[in-house]
Design brief:
By secondary structure, the chain is mainly beta. The protein is built from 4 helices and 33 strands.
Protein backbone atom coordinates (compact mmCIF):
# COMPACT_ATOMS: atom_id res chain seq x y z
CA UNK A 1 0.00 0.00 0.00
CA UNK A 2 1.37 3.38 -0.95
CA UNK A 3 0.24 6.18 1.31
CA UNK A 4 1.48 9.73 1.68
CA UNK A 5 2.78 10.69 5.11
CA UNK A 6 1.48 14.13 6.12
CA UNK A 7 3.86 16.62 7.72
CA UNK A 8 3.19 19.99 9.35
CA UNK A 9 2.14 22.44 6.70
CA UNK A 10 4.35 25.39 5.96
CA UNK A 11 1.51 27.79 5.44
CA UNK A 12 -0.30 27.63 8.79
CA UNK A 13 -3.10 30.02 7.92
CA UNK A 14 -4.15 28.00 4.89
CA UNK A 15 -4.06 24.79 6.87
CA UNK A 16 -6.31 26.13 9.59
CA UNK A 17 -8.83 27.38 7.05
CA UNK A 18 -8.89 23.94 5.47
CA UNK A 19 -9.29 22.36 8.87
CA UNK A 20 -12.32 24.44 9.78
CA UNK A 21 -13.93 23.88 6.38
CA UNK A 22 -13.18 20.23 5.71
CA UNK A 23 -16.65 18.94 6.55
CA UNK A 24 -18.31 20.97 3.77
CA UNK A 25 -15.79 20.30 1.00
CA UNK A 26 -17.10 17.97 -1.73
CA UNK A 27 -14.36 15.53 -2.64
CA UNK A 28 -14.13 14.20 -6.17
CA UNK A 29 -12.60 10.94 -4.96
CA UNK A 30 -13.19 8.58 -2.07
CA UNK A 31 -11.37 9.48 1.18
CA UNK A 32 -7.91 7.91 1.46
CA UNK A 33 -7.10 8.45 5.13
CA UNK A 34 -3.96 10.45 4.37
CA UNK A 35 -4.64 13.17 6.95
CA UNK A 36 -7.29 15.08 8.98
CA UNK A 37 -8.63 16.70 5.79
CA UNK A 38 -9.14 13.35 4.05
CA UNK A 39 -10.39 10.95 6.72
CA UNK A 40 -12.03 7.59 6.16
CA UNK A 41 -15.08 6.14 7.90
CA UNK A 42 -14.40 3.04 10.03
CA UNK A 43 -15.39 -0.03 8.02
CA UNK A 44 -14.32 -2.97 10.21
CA UNK A 45 -12.35 -4.36 7.25
CA UNK A 46 -8.71 -5.52 7.36
CA UNK A 47 -6.30 -2.76 6.28
CA UNK A 48 -2.61 -2.81 5.42
CA UNK A 49 0.10 -0.50 6.78
CA UNK A 50 3.71 -0.36 5.72
CA UNK A 51 6.54 0.90 7.92
CA UNK A 52 6.20 4.65 8.61
CA UNK A 53 2.58 4.87 7.39
CA UNK A 54 -0.61 5.83 9.20
CA UNK A 55 -4.35 6.00 8.45
CA UNK A 56 -6.77 8.73 9.58
CA UNK A 57 -10.43 8.18 10.46
CA UNK A 58 -13.10 10.49 11.87
CA UNK A 59 -16.43 10.29 13.61
CA UNK A 60 -18.93 12.78 14.96
CA UNK A 61 -20.32 12.54 18.49
CA UNK A 62 -23.55 14.26 19.54
CA UNK A 63 -23.57 14.81 23.31
CA UNK A 64 -26.99 14.57 24.99
CA UNK A 65 -27.08 17.08 27.85
CA UNK A 66 -30.55 16.13 29.10
CA UNK A 67 -30.88 15.01 32.71
CA UNK A 68 -32.43 11.70 31.64
CA UNK A 69 -29.56 10.80 29.34
CA UNK A 70 -27.52 7.70 30.17
CA UNK A 71 -24.07 8.03 28.65
CA UNK A 72 -22.60 4.72 27.60
CA UNK A 73 -18.88 4.79 26.80
CA UNK A 74 -17.58 4.74 23.26
CA UNK A 75 -15.57 1.57 22.71
CA UNK A 76 -12.90 0.80 20.15
CA UNK A 77 -11.44 -2.69 19.74
CA UNK A 78 -8.50 -3.18 17.38
CA UNK A 79 -7.06 -6.44 16.03
CA UNK A 80 -3.60 -6.48 14.44
CA UNK A 81 -1.39 -9.04 12.76
CA UNK A 82 1.39 -9.25 13.92
CA UNK A 83 -0.28 -8.56 17.24
CA UNK A 84 1.78 -5.45 18.24
CA UNK A 85 2.40 -4.01 14.78
CA UNK A 86 -0.07 -1.08 14.95
CA UNK A 87 -1.06 1.58 17.48
CA UNK A 88 -4.38 3.45 17.68
CA UNK A 89 -4.96 6.87 19.26
CA UNK A 90 -8.03 9.10 19.62
CA UNK A 91 -7.81 12.89 19.15
CA UNK A 92 -10.05 15.92 19.51
CA UNK A 93 -10.23 19.06 17.37
CA UNK A 94 -7.75 21.06 19.48
CA UNK A 95 -5.15 18.29 19.19
CA UNK A 96 -5.60 18.18 15.42
CA UNK A 97 -5.03 21.93 15.17
CA UNK A 98 -1.83 21.55 17.18
CA UNK A 99 -0.74 18.71 14.87
CA UNK A 100 -1.28 21.01 11.87
CA UNK A 101 0.68 23.87 13.47
CA UNK A 102 3.74 21.98 14.69
CA UNK A 103 3.34 18.28 14.00
CA UNK A 104 2.96 17.34 17.67
CA UNK A 105 1.14 14.02 18.11
CA UNK A 106 -1.11 14.69 21.07
CA UNK A 107 -4.08 12.46 21.91
CA UNK A 108 -6.49 11.86 24.77
CA UNK A 109 -7.00 8.12 24.26
CA UNK A 110 -4.90 5.15 23.23
CA UNK A 111 -5.81 1.49 22.68
CA UNK A 112 -4.06 -0.74 25.21
CA UNK A 113 -3.27 -4.42 24.84
CA UNK A 114 -5.69 -6.99 26.25
CA UNK A 115 -4.75 -10.66 26.67
CA UNK A 116 -7.74 -12.94 27.34
CA UNK A 117 -5.62 -16.07 26.87
CA UNK A 118 -8.12 -17.41 24.39
CA UNK A 119 -5.32 -19.29 22.72
CA UNK A 120 -2.78 -19.50 25.57
CA UNK A 121 -0.02 -18.11 23.34
CA UNK A 122 1.06 -15.35 25.72
CA UNK A 123 0.27 -12.62 23.17
CA UNK A 124 -2.38 -9.93 23.36
CA UNK A 125 -5.63 -10.92 21.67
CA UNK A 126 -6.64 -7.35 20.83
CA UNK A 127 -6.21 -3.74 21.93
CA UNK A 128 -9.03 -1.70 23.41
CA UNK A 129 -10.01 1.85 24.40
CA UNK A 130 -13.23 3.03 26.06
CA UNK A 131 -14.19 6.54 27.11
CA UNK A 132 -17.22 8.73 27.85
CA UNK A 133 -17.12 11.92 25.79
CA UNK A 134 -18.60 15.12 27.23
CA UNK A 135 -18.64 17.42 24.19
CA UNK A 136 -20.28 17.23 20.80
CA UNK A 137 -17.97 17.51 17.82
CA UNK A 138 -15.75 15.71 15.36
CA UNK A 139 -13.13 13.32 16.73
CA UNK A 140 -10.28 11.54 14.97
CA UNK A 141 -8.78 8.06 15.10
CA UNK A 142 -5.20 7.58 13.91
CA UNK A 143 -3.77 4.11 13.30
CA UNK A 144 0.02 4.09 12.96
CA UNK A 145 2.53 1.43 12.06
CA UNK A 146 4.48 0.57 15.23
CA UNK A 147 7.97 2.09 15.17
CA UNK A 148 9.75 -1.04 16.42
CA UNK A 149 8.12 -3.41 13.87
CA UNK A 150 9.86 -3.84 10.52
CA UNK A 151 7.27 -5.95 8.69
CA UNK A 152 3.93 -5.08 7.11
CA UNK A 153 1.03 -4.62 9.55
CA UNK A 154 -2.57 -5.74 8.99
CA UNK A 155 -5.24 -4.29 11.24
CA UNK A 156 -8.95 -3.78 11.66
CA UNK A 157 -11.02 -2.10 14.37
CA UNK A 158 -14.64 -1.78 15.48
CA UNK A 159 -16.17 1.27 17.11
CA UNK A 160 -19.43 1.24 19.04
CA UNK A 161 -21.43 3.63 21.19
CA UNK A 162 -24.44 5.91 21.17
CA UNK A 163 -24.92 9.10 19.14
CA UNK A 164 -22.14 8.33 16.65
CA UNK A 165 -22.11 9.29 12.98
CA UNK A 166 -19.45 9.28 10.30
CA UNK A 167 -19.21 12.48 8.21
CA UNK A 168 -16.64 10.99 5.82
CA UNK A 169 -19.21 8.43 4.60
CA UNK A 170 -21.03 11.25 2.81
CA UNK A 171 -17.81 12.14 0.97
CA UNK A 172 -17.06 8.65 -0.28
CA UNK A 173 -17.57 7.63 -3.87
CA UNK A 174 -20.02 4.94 -4.85
CA UNK A 175 -17.30 2.29 -4.47
CA UNK A 176 -18.48 -0.48 -2.14
CA UNK A 177 -17.49 -0.19 1.51
CA UNK A 178 -18.92 -1.79 4.64
CA UNK A 179 -21.33 0.49 6.52
CA UNK A 180 -20.05 1.66 9.87
CA UNK A 181 -23.45 1.17 11.52
CA UNK A 182 -25.69 -1.86 11.39
CA UNK A 183 -28.93 -0.06 10.72
CA UNK A 184 -28.20 1.45 7.30
CA UNK A 185 -31.28 2.45 5.28
CA UNK A 186 -31.71 0.47 2.10
CA UNK A 187 -31.20 3.47 -0.13
CA UNK A 188 -27.76 4.15 1.38
CA UNK A 189 -26.38 0.63 1.03
CA UNK A 190 -25.54 0.66 -2.67
CA UNK A 191 -26.36 -3.07 -2.59
CA UNK A 192 -24.86 -5.64 -4.91
CA UNK A 193 -27.39 -7.12 -7.36
CA UNK A 194 -26.23 -10.61 -8.36
CA UNK A 195 -26.06 -11.86 -11.98
CA UNK A 196 -28.61 -14.39 -13.24
CA UNK A 197 -27.12 -17.70 -12.00
CA UNK A 198 -24.84 -16.42 -9.24
CA UNK A 199 -25.75 -17.88 -5.87
CA UNK A 200 -28.80 -19.80 -7.11
CA UNK A 201 -27.49 -23.28 -6.18
CA UNK A 202 -24.49 -25.03 -4.62
CA UNK A 203 -22.89 -25.40 -8.08
CA UNK A 204 -23.07 -21.63 -8.55
CA UNK A 205 -22.21 -20.70 -4.99
CA UNK A 206 -20.59 -17.35 -4.21
CA UNK A 207 -17.52 -16.49 -2.21
CA UNK A 208 -18.40 -14.30 0.84
CA UNK A 209 -17.37 -10.68 0.35
CA UNK A 210 -18.98 -8.81 3.27
CA UNK A 211 -20.77 -6.48 0.83
CA UNK A 212 -24.37 -5.37 1.22
CA UNK A 213 -26.46 -7.49 -1.14
CA UNK A 214 -30.06 -7.27 -2.35
CA UNK A 215 -32.27 -10.33 -1.82
CA UNK A 216 -35.54 -10.53 -3.69
CA UNK A 217 -38.72 -11.75 -2.02
CA UNK A 218 -38.75 -15.59 -1.94
CA UNK A 219 -35.11 -15.55 -3.08
CA UNK A 220 -32.06 -17.41 -1.75
CA UNK A 221 -28.29 -17.00 -2.16
CA UNK A 222 -25.73 -19.81 -1.77
CA UNK A 223 -22.16 -19.22 -0.56
CA UNK A 224 -19.33 -21.72 -0.20
CA UNK A 225 -16.17 -22.19 1.87
CA UNK A 226 -13.75 -25.00 2.62
CA UNK A 227 -12.72 -25.98 6.13
CA UNK A 228 -9.61 -27.90 7.15
CA UNK A 229 -10.16 -29.53 10.54
CA UNK A 230 -7.35 -29.10 13.05
CA UNK A 231 -7.82 -30.21 16.65
CA UNK A 232 -5.42 -27.45 17.75
CA UNK A 233 -7.40 -24.65 16.08
CA UNK A 234 -8.31 -21.99 18.64
CA UNK A 235 -10.89 -19.85 16.81
CA UNK A 236 -14.22 -21.48 15.84
CA UNK A 237 -16.07 -20.65 12.65
CA UNK A 238 -18.25 -17.61 13.28
CA UNK A 239 -20.85 -15.89 11.10
CA UNK A 240 -22.39 -12.51 11.90
CA UNK A 241 -25.34 -11.37 9.76
CA UNK A 242 -26.67 -7.82 9.38
CA UNK A 243 -29.90 -7.27 7.49
CA UNK A 244 -32.54 -4.63 6.77
CA UNK A 245 -35.39 -5.11 7.57
CA UNK A 246 -34.02 -7.05 10.51
CA UNK A 247 -36.61 -9.90 10.42
CA UNK A 248 -36.70 -10.48 6.65
CA UNK A 249 -33.59 -12.68 6.19
CA UNK A 250 -32.65 -16.18 7.43
CA UNK A 251 -29.09 -17.61 7.29
CA UNK A 252 -28.32 -21.34 7.61
CA UNK A 253 -25.14 -23.45 7.39
CA UNK A 254 -25.06 -26.75 5.49
CA UNK A 255 -22.64 -29.58 4.83
CA UNK A 256 -22.06 -31.41 1.54
CA UNK A 257 -24.66 -34.09 2.27
CA UNK A 258 -27.32 -31.48 2.96
CA UNK A 259 -26.39 -29.66 -0.26
CA UNK A 260 -26.77 -32.95 -2.18
CA UNK A 261 -30.16 -33.50 -0.57
CA UNK A 262 -31.24 -30.07 -1.78
CA UNK A 263 -30.02 -30.93 -5.30
CA UNK A 264 -32.04 -34.19 -5.36
CA UNK A 265 -35.39 -33.12 -3.93
CA UNK A 266 -35.15 -29.48 -2.81
CA UNK A 267 -35.25 -30.34 0.90
CA UNK A 268 -33.79 -27.59 3.10
CA UNK A 269 -31.74 -29.33 5.78
CA UNK A 270 -29.04 -27.54 7.78
CA UNK A 271 -26.94 -28.01 10.92
CA UNK A 272 -26.63 -24.37 11.95
CA UNK A 273 -28.79 -21.25 11.91
CA UNK A 274 -28.02 -17.63 12.82
CA UNK A 275 -29.85 -16.54 15.97
CA UNK A 276 -30.95 -12.96 16.54
CA UNK A 277 -28.96 -10.83 18.98
CA UNK A 278 -29.98 -7.47 20.45
CA UNK A 279 -27.08 -5.70 22.11
CA UNK A 280 -29.07 -2.45 22.50
CA UNK A 281 -26.52 -0.44 20.54
CA UNK A 282 -29.19 2.10 19.75
CA UNK A 283 -31.80 1.35 22.42
CA UNK A 284 -34.49 0.83 19.81
CA UNK A 285 -35.54 -2.61 21.03
CA UNK A 286 -34.80 -4.13 17.62
CA UNK A 287 -32.33 -6.85 16.70
CA UNK A 288 -28.82 -5.52 15.96
CA UNK A 289 -27.49 -8.61 14.18
CA UNK A 290 -27.76 -12.40 14.01
CA UNK A 291 -24.95 -14.80 14.80
CA UNK A 292 -23.89 -18.45 14.53
CA UNK A 293 -20.74 -20.02 15.93
CA UNK A 294 -19.54 -23.61 15.80
CA UNK A 295 -16.45 -25.80 16.08
CA UNK A 296 -16.73 -28.24 13.16
CA UNK A 297 -15.18 -31.70 13.42
CA UNK A 298 -14.80 -32.65 9.74
CA UNK A 299 -12.76 -31.18 6.93
CA UNK A 300 -14.65 -30.51 3.72
CA UNK A 301 -16.83 -28.14 1.77
CA UNK A 302 -19.59 -26.20 3.53
CA UNK A 303 -22.33 -23.86 2.35
CA UNK A 304 -24.04 -20.77 3.71
CA UNK A 305 -27.57 -20.10 2.46
CA UNK A 306 -29.21 -16.69 2.89
CA UNK A 307 -32.98 -16.83 2.31
CA UNK A 308 -35.89 -14.47 2.35
CA UNK A 309 -37.98 -15.13 5.46
CA UNK A 310 -41.35 -16.84 4.99
CA UNK A 311 -44.12 -14.45 4.07
CA UNK A 312 -41.85 -11.56 3.07
CA UNK A 313 -43.16 -9.79 -0.04
CA UNK A 314 -40.50 -7.09 -0.59
CA UNK A 315 -36.73 -7.11 -1.23
CA UNK A 316 -34.37 -7.26 1.74
CA UNK A 317 -30.72 -6.24 2.16
CA UNK A 318 -28.01 -8.11 4.01
CA UNK A 319 -24.30 -8.57 4.56
CA UNK A 320 -22.40 -11.08 6.67
CA UNK A 321 -18.88 -11.75 7.89
CA UNK A 322 -17.25 -15.18 8.11
CA UNK A 323 -14.26 -15.66 10.44
CA UNK A 324 -12.32 -18.56 11.93
CA UNK A 325 -9.20 -20.67 11.63
CA UNK A 326 -8.38 -22.88 8.61
CA UNK A 327 -10.88 -21.37 6.18
CA UNK A 328 -10.29 -21.23 2.43
CA UNK A 329 -12.40 -20.59 -0.65
CA UNK A 330 -12.80 -22.44 -3.99
CA UNK A 331 -11.19 -20.97 -7.06
CA UNK A 332 -13.26 -18.41 -8.92
CA UNK A 333 -14.59 -19.08 -12.42
CA UNK A 334 -15.61 -15.50 -13.03
CA UNK A 335 -13.96 -12.93 -10.80
CA UNK A 336 -16.43 -10.15 -11.49
CA UNK A 337 -19.47 -12.23 -10.71
CA UNK A 338 -17.96 -14.08 -7.76
CA UNK A 339 -19.20 -17.45 -9.07
CA UNK A 340 -17.17 -20.47 -8.08
CA UNK A 341 -16.52 -23.62 -10.03
CA UNK A 342 -18.58 -26.70 -9.22
CA UNK A 343 -15.25 -28.49 -8.88
CA UNK A 344 -12.04 -26.59 -8.17
CA UNK A 345 -8.88 -26.58 -6.18
CA UNK A 346 -9.09 -24.75 -2.87
CA UNK A 347 -7.56 -21.29 -2.88
CA UNK A 348 -6.14 -19.93 0.39
CA UNK A 349 -8.00 -16.99 1.88
CA UNK A 350 -6.24 -13.59 1.66
CA UNK A 351 -3.80 -12.92 4.45
CA UNK A 352 -4.33 -12.28 7.23
CA UNK A 353 -7.33 -14.55 7.88
CA UNK A 354 -9.77 -12.70 10.09
CA UNK A 355 -10.02 -14.17 13.56
CA UNK A 356 -13.10 -14.52 15.72
CA UNK A 357 -13.10 -12.09 18.60
CA UNK A 358 -15.16 -11.76 21.78
CA UNK A 359 -18.32 -9.68 21.57
CA UNK A 360 -17.69 -6.24 23.04
CA UNK A 361 -21.05 -5.56 24.65
CA UNK A 362 -23.00 -7.59 27.18
CA UNK A 363 -25.88 -9.30 25.38
CA UNK A 364 -29.47 -9.29 26.56
CA UNK A 365 -31.52 -12.09 24.91
CA UNK A 366 -34.56 -10.68 23.15
CA UNK A 367 -38.19 -11.72 23.55
CA UNK A 368 -38.65 -15.43 24.36
CA UNK A 369 -35.03 -16.38 23.68
CA UNK A 370 -33.61 -18.42 26.52
CA UNK A 371 -36.79 -18.44 28.63
CA UNK A 372 -37.19 -22.23 28.59
CA UNK A 373 -36.12 -25.48 26.88
CA UNK A 374 -38.35 -24.79 23.87
CA UNK A 375 -36.59 -21.44 23.32
CA UNK A 376 -33.12 -22.57 24.32
CA UNK A 377 -30.19 -20.65 22.84
CA UNK A 378 -26.88 -21.75 21.41
CA UNK A 379 -23.75 -20.97 23.47
CA UNK A 380 -21.88 -18.03 21.88
CA UNK A 381 -18.90 -17.26 24.19
CA UNK A 382 -20.35 -13.73 24.47
CA UNK A 383 -20.72 -11.88 27.77
CA UNK A 384 -24.42 -11.91 28.62
CA UNK A 385 -26.44 -9.90 31.14
CA UNK A 386 -28.73 -11.64 33.64
CA UNK A 387 -31.17 -9.68 35.80
CA UNK A 388 -32.32 -10.70 39.27
CA UNK A 389 -34.91 -13.49 39.11
CA UNK A 390 -34.02 -14.45 35.52
CA UNK A 391 -32.69 -17.67 34.06
CA UNK A 392 -31.29 -18.41 30.59
CA UNK A 393 -31.60 -21.80 28.87
CA UNK A 394 -29.07 -23.18 26.38
CA UNK A 395 -29.06 -26.46 24.49
CA UNK A 396 -26.50 -28.87 23.04
CA UNK A 397 -26.64 -32.40 21.69
CA UNK A 398 -24.35 -35.25 22.66
CA UNK A 399 -23.50 -38.30 20.54
CA UNK A 400 -22.26 -41.14 22.75
CA UNK A 401 -19.32 -42.93 21.15
CA UNK A 402 -16.73 -45.29 22.57
CA UNK A 403 -14.06 -43.20 20.87
CA UNK A 404 -14.98 -40.06 22.82
CA UNK A 405 -11.78 -39.40 24.72
CA UNK A 406 -12.49 -35.96 26.16
CA UNK A 407 -15.33 -35.49 28.67
CA UNK A 408 -17.88 -32.72 28.30
CA UNK A 409 -16.45 -29.70 30.11
CA UNK A 410 -17.97 -26.30 30.90
CA UNK A 411 -15.99 -23.27 32.06
CA UNK A 412 -18.09 -20.32 33.29
CA UNK A 413 -16.80 -16.80 33.92
CA UNK A 414 -19.02 -14.42 35.91
CA UNK A 415 -18.99 -10.87 37.24
CA UNK A 416 -19.67 -10.64 40.13
CA UNK A 417 -18.30 -14.14 40.70
CA UNK A 418 -21.23 -15.28 42.88
CA UNK A 419 -24.04 -13.66 40.84
CA UNK A 420 -24.84 -16.66 38.62
CA UNK A 421 -25.38 -20.41 38.98
CA UNK A 422 -24.93 -22.89 36.11
CA UNK A 423 -26.64 -26.29 36.09
CA UNK A 424 -26.80 -29.10 33.51
CA UNK A 425 -30.03 -30.96 32.76
CA UNK A 426 -31.14 -33.89 30.63
CA UNK A 427 -34.32 -34.20 28.58
CA UNK A 428 -36.36 -35.72 31.43
CA UNK A 429 -35.41 -32.91 33.80
CA UNK A 430 -36.32 -30.33 31.18
CA UNK A 431 -39.74 -32.00 30.82
CA UNK A 432 -40.21 -31.88 34.60
CA UNK A 433 -39.55 -28.15 34.47
CA UNK A 434 -42.12 -27.75 31.69
CA UNK A 435 -44.79 -29.58 33.70
CA UNK A 436 -44.37 -28.16 37.19
CA UNK A 437 -41.42 -25.71 37.16
CA UNK A 438 -39.23 -27.95 39.30
CA UNK A 439 -35.52 -27.21 38.85
CA UNK A 440 -33.89 -30.65 38.74
CA UNK A 441 -30.36 -31.13 37.40
CA UNK A 442 -27.55 -33.68 37.37
CA UNK A 443 -24.58 -31.30 37.24
CA UNK A 444 -23.56 -27.90 38.61
CA UNK A 445 -20.55 -25.65 37.94
CA UNK A 446 -18.39 -25.25 41.05
CA UNK A 447 -15.40 -22.93 41.69
CA UNK A 448 -12.28 -24.25 40.02
CA UNK A 449 -9.65 -25.68 42.36
CA UNK A 450 -6.08 -24.42 42.30
CA UNK A 451 -2.88 -26.23 43.14
CA UNK A 452 -3.04 -28.10 46.44
CA UNK A 453 0.24 -26.77 47.70
CA UNK A 454 1.32 -30.24 48.78
CA UNK A 455 4.60 -30.00 46.88
CA UNK A 456 7.44 -28.27 48.63
CA UNK A 457 7.66 -24.62 47.61
CA UNK A 458 4.10 -24.53 46.18
CA UNK A 459 1.74 -21.79 47.25
CA UNK A 460 -1.78 -22.96 47.99
CA UNK A 461 -4.41 -21.11 45.92
CA UNK A 462 -7.83 -20.61 47.44
CA UNK A 463 -10.75 -21.42 45.15
CA UNK A 464 -12.20 -17.95 45.66
CA UNK A 465 -9.11 -16.44 44.01
CA UNK A 466 -9.68 -18.27 40.73
CA UNK A 467 -11.55 -16.60 37.88
CA UNK A 468 -14.00 -19.29 36.80
CA UNK A 469 -16.25 -22.18 37.79
CA UNK A 470 -16.27 -25.51 36.01
CA UNK A 471 -18.12 -28.78 35.51
CA UNK A 472 -16.88 -31.89 33.74
CA UNK A 473 -18.39 -35.36 33.20
CA UNK A 474 -18.44 -38.31 30.83
CA UNK A 475 -22.01 -38.53 29.51
CA UNK A 476 -23.28 -42.05 28.82
CA UNK A 477 -26.38 -41.40 26.70
CA UNK A 478 -26.88 -39.64 23.38
CA UNK A 479 -29.53 -36.94 23.25
CA UNK A 480 -30.37 -33.32 24.00
CA UNK A 481 -28.95 -31.63 27.08
CA UNK A 482 -29.64 -28.23 28.57
CA UNK A 483 -27.53 -25.65 30.37
CA UNK A 484 -29.40 -23.25 32.65
CA UNK A 485 -27.85 -20.03 33.98
CA UNK A 486 -29.73 -18.60 36.97
CA UNK A 487 -29.32 -15.39 38.90
CA UNK A 488 -28.37 -16.05 42.53
CA UNK A 489 -31.28 -14.98 44.73
CA UNK A 490 -28.91 -13.54 47.36
CA UNK A 491 -27.32 -11.07 44.90
CA UNK A 492 -29.17 -7.80 44.31
CA UNK A 493 -27.31 -6.49 41.26
CA UNK A 494 -27.34 -7.76 37.65
CA UNK A 495 -24.90 -10.52 36.80
CA UNK A 496 -22.74 -10.88 33.71
CA UNK A 497 -21.50 -14.22 32.48
CA UNK A 498 -20.04 -16.17 29.61
CA UNK A 499 -19.24 -19.86 29.33
CA UNK A 500 -17.49 -22.35 27.06
CA UNK A 501 -18.58 -25.93 26.29
CA UNK A 502 -16.09 -28.46 24.94
CA UNK A 503 -15.72 -32.22 24.60
CA UNK A 504 -15.98 -35.06 22.11
CA UNK A 505 -19.50 -35.76 20.82
CA UNK A 506 -20.79 -32.23 21.55
CA UNK A 507 -22.72 -30.34 18.87
CA UNK A 508 -25.14 -27.38 18.70
Amino acid sequence: MSRKMWKPMAVIAVALVLLLAWEVVAYAQAPTGEGPFDTMAPSGEWMQLEEGEYDWYSFHFDYDSSDEAVHEPIEIRMFAEPYASATLTVRNQDQIEQWVRDGENLHFGCCTMVDRDRNDDGFADYAEWAGTLRESGTYYIVVEHAKDVAETSFYRFDISGENLSFPSEALASTEESAPAVTEAPAEAMAPVVLPELAGTAPDYALVPTGAWTELEADGSHWYVFDYDYDKDATHPVKIRLYNEPYEDVVLTVRNTEQADLWRRDGENKHFGCCSMVDVDKNNDGLIDYSEWEGSMRNSGRYYIVVESAEGVKTPAYYRFTLTGDNLSFPRLVEETAGIVAPIGEPKPAPEPVAMAEPVMEALEPAGLMGTGPDFAMQPTLAWTQLEKGQQHWYKFTYDDDDDNARPVTIHMFADPKDATILTVRNGDQAETWRQDGENLHFGCCTPAKGPTGDEEGDEKIDAKDLAYAQWSANLTESGEYFIVIEHDKDVNEPGFYRFEVSGDGVAF
